[in-house]
Amino acid sequence: MFAPAKPPHQAFGGALFFCYATKGFVYNAEMIEDDKIIASADGIMRLDYVSFMGFLNETNRPPGGKDSMRRMAQNAFLTKDSHVLHSGCNTGYCSFELSHLIKCRVTALDLNDAMLASANKKSAKEPAPYCDLISFQKGDAHSLDFGDDTFDLVMSGGSTAFMKDKEKVVSEYVRVCKPYGFVGDVFLYYHTDPPQQVIDAINAELGISIQKWGKDDWVSLYTDAGLEAYYAYDAKMPVHPTDEDVKKYCATMVDQNGLAGDQRQVALDKLYGYMRLFNENHKYLSYAVLLCRKVPEKEQISLFGV
User: Fold this and answer.
1) Ranges of residues in the chain whose predicted pLDDT is under 50
2) Which of 44, 57, 118, 154 has CB atoms 3.0–4.6 Å from 91's, for a disulfide?
3) What is the CATH number of the domain that holds 110?
4) What separation, in Å, do the N-terminal and C-terminal C-alpha atoms of the chain show?
């Protein structure tokens, strides 16, 4: 993948739909009514990507969706007694899915107020016992407010790619993970170098500077932190939508939020611009589910395999 990124660079191989906000969320909204943000057309135009997706209540699935979460849960050997930390939770898709599968406790962190508001709104609609299993909190993965050896699984659904100092973040993951617990990630990586104009367009649209990481770069990020590579699954992106598919998706996402007139058109054009770019970028991407184990002492090398 990309060589581990240093600030202010971003490693692209998380998920473009998974951004970890590093600044406060600002809707530029004119009014709030019935818990729904009513933004002006100009306000919608000025929203950054993360805020815009929060405004649209986008689900923010990890690469591989439910299948990736099932693999994560099974291969981290989660039980109902497990405690999971979900870093960069966005609207909580991974948190909800692990809770639904295992009935385990999940502590979910994000810096973006809109994403947390959306996640809490969804959580309030969950039936028992799930409504009591997940705690959404504001927090920074660079400095986790938890004691050492707290969680059975520390995971990201792709947000680690957008964090400024990934080595620091992963060291925090390791610190709060229990001995013989797991640190997991679901990330996108480049299996083929994309054209430079695609990279330039992403940088311009998202206001970041990405590097083209491959799978080995991501694995090294975690193993260099002293973790043992335990499980990895990778696959190419399963669907490459047509332009018509992209347009239908955008119309559905915008219309479900009740936008009309200039607001609808601005939101539609903005979302289509993002999704068309992401769809082009996905031609060069695969994704992986990675689990690494925290071992107190490094194992002896093996000549004939692990």
Assistant:
1) 1-38
2) 118
3) 3.40.50.150
4) 24
